Amino acid sequence: MSNLLEVRDLSKRFTSAGGPFRKARSMHAVNGVTFDLPKGRVIGVVGESGCGKSTLARLILRLIEPSGGGVNFDGDDLLAKTPGQMRKLRARMQMVFQDPYSAIDPRYTLTRAVAEPFEVQGVTPAKPMAEEVADLLEMVGLNPGLATSYPHQISGGQKQRVGIARALALRPSLLVLDEPTASLDVSVQAQIIGLLEDLRAELGLTYLFISHDLSLVKYFCDEILVMYLGRVVEALPDTSAPARHPYTRTLMESTFEPDPKKRRLIAPLEGEVPSPFDLPPGCAFADRCPKASALCRSETPELSADNGHAVACHHPI
Amino acid sequence: MLSVRDLGVAFGSVQPLSGVSFTVSPGETLGIVGESGSGKSLTAMSVMGLLPLIGGRITGGTVEFDGADVTKLPERAYRKLRGGKIGLITQNPMTSLDPLQKIGPQVDDVAKLHMGMTGAEARARTVEILGTLRIPEPALICDRYPHQMSGGMKQRIVIAMALAADPDVLIADEPTTALDVTVQAQIIRLLDDLVKERNLALVLITHDMSVVAQTCDKIVVMYAGRAVEHGPVEAIFDRPRHPYTQALIACIPRGLDDATRLTGIEGTVPTVLNYPKGCPFHPRCPRAEAICAVEPPEFSVEGDSAAACHFAEVAHVQPA
Ligand SMILES: Nc1ncnc2c1ncn2[C@@H]1O[C@H](COP(=O)(O)OP(=O)(O)OP(=O)(O)O)[C@@H](O)[C@H]1O
Ligand SMILES: Nc1ncnc2c1ncn2[C@@H]1O[C@H](COP(=O)(O)OP(=O)(O)OP(=O)(O)O)[C@@H](O)[C@H]1O
Ligand code: SF4
Ligand code: SF4
Ligand SMILES: [Mg+2]
Ligand SMILES: [Mg+2]
Q1: B234-284: per-residue pLDDT in tens?
Q2: How do residues A247-271 score in pLDDT, each as one tens digit?
Q3: ipTM
Q4: Contact A253 B263 (CB under 8 A)
Q5: Are the Cβ atoms of B213 and A258 closer than 8 angstroms?
Q6: Across the interface, which of B181, B182, B268 has its CB nearest the CB of A157?
Q7: DSSP character for B145?
Q8: Would A85 be classed as within a structural domain?
Q9: Considering the domain boundaries, does residue A7 fall inside one?
Q10: Distance CA A164, CA A198 (A)
Q11: The whole model's pTM is what?
Q12: Ligand 6 mean position to B11 CA, how many Å?
């Protein structure tokens, strides 16, 4: 299987502005992330707020420039592309955002919102535009009769479908989904996930699926990357692989089963997440880790794979 | 302890809430679940006597606390109860915290107001409560401002404020929705411990069925401003009798051991302005028959559970 996406040692540093009484400080929002996404597969990225998921997504689409590392998309080195070439490529790699409300312009009808990508790319669709838009709306399960509606006239789930229709307009091969259901009710989330499954089967799409919801990622994805403070700490080759990193274990134990017969003891978790501006030496999870040793507090563990299951920990489970 | 019967709420001529009933006893956790706009927060506001603040009023039913109907209480008496014997934790901790005031004094004020404590007594109590909430170095934390703390810490401070008045009933409106999973797990554990240690009656409002499954003894499922099913949590998860509850449970992704495909619930949640006649779920219900559009269903009781569906007796099909 060939890789649609190859991410190598990708990093992004942000620097906070200094002031008269403050030094400028910098932090690694994404730190040395490496992975391959084969065609047709779904990789999930999980981790808690601020661990760098959205920054990773933006780096991959080159919506922001990396501080280091590279991205290869379908054989093309993205960092070597001019802005014009990049815009062309972006037709094939699209992003769906968390917030369906900000994704579409409130002044546009749905027709205009769905037709916009064609205009931006200067592409004339094969069919007349009205037909193309109707097809796209239908593809995401929206009644084409809604085409003349405005965003405020439709529900959150319908807006998210419009966001997906827009992303599909130029027939991309890769969709980066950044928490596409986080603001939706479960009933609507289930509709959107069902839709994404159908589209994947019909169009052979490849997804990078970002979420903080481990149960959802386990349900939807083939492989899982677990991030903690900018780094990938574990890469689970399939969704049933047992966690080897203590942080992944913590995440799994913090996720409740939707079944009152499977209640679990919630172990008290010591320590706080360290400030990303002020990371201690060694493993960033050491303060909260029951297995932390002196080695953990001095040396950063590297991600190393064993049978395709990679983990960055000195004392994996 | 707290008993709500047939509660109805109106804003002018719109009636977003009707026929909501439940009871909670000391040491018990009741979950109120339902999708966005189903009336969970309005239910909490009604019990707290806060409706006048947002221009709403109770149009029917009773809210009994320790045997007495509080809906008829004058505002002054209600104010004593609210934040006193009945505490509220809101979803967004920042709405309950004053960003310009240090943590300690904010928590002290509650004990001063509701327990008539002096400043020193109140501070001692604050430090003790922060300690039981497993906040490290509580005395030092009292000198911090809200912006110097993480989201999970702030939520604990809000819980501390609710506990400072030594309430018998605690209503928690989506207390963990804004938090990360590991922090959520800690807060849920904390609430669970409080129920047991202090014999609290806890009303936990959430849209997260997994949180309910983990913590609650019984649940109320709300849809379009009505309670559509209620009962012991195991019975409801095992054998939901209302088609809406069945659909809701089928929407939860279960990972591996469950290969069923998620399909969601067709259609959309009705808003106050277009609550359907008859059974509110009928436009989306796979079992609906002609009668459902005309006649509101009565509760059909089975054991300790009740479901408001015309076909609750025969609706034993498990979600597909
Ligand atoms: N433009 C920026 N300038 C400075 N810092 C930033 C910028 N964008 C993100 N950050 C910081 O980088 C870190 C990672 O942010 P990011 O948005 O990628 O996290 P996330 O995993 O997507 O979190 P969430 O789950 O909350 O969406 C955070 O600490 C954030 O404050
Ligand atoms: N001040 C108000 N005036 C008129 N209608 C209101 C008012 N507040 C709430 N409502 C309506 O009452 C219904 C129930 O709202 P409520 O806030 O209780 O829902 P909820 O179940 O808490 O939803 P969420 O999960 O989104 O918090 C909604 O349809 C809402 O539009
Ligand atoms: S490297 Fe050490 S501190 Fe880090 S997760 Fe592994 S055992 Fe824990
Ligand atoms: S009363 Fe009718 S519409 Fe309502 S839930 Fe039962 S079967 Fe469905
Ligand atoms: Mg993000
Ligand atoms: Mg609410």
Answers
A1: 999 999 999 999 999 999 887 655 556 787 888 878 888 889 999 999 999
A2: 999 999 999 988 999 998 888 777 7
A3: 0.86
A4: no
A5: yes
A6: B268
A7: -
A8: yes
A9: yes
A10: 13
A11: 0.91
A12: 16
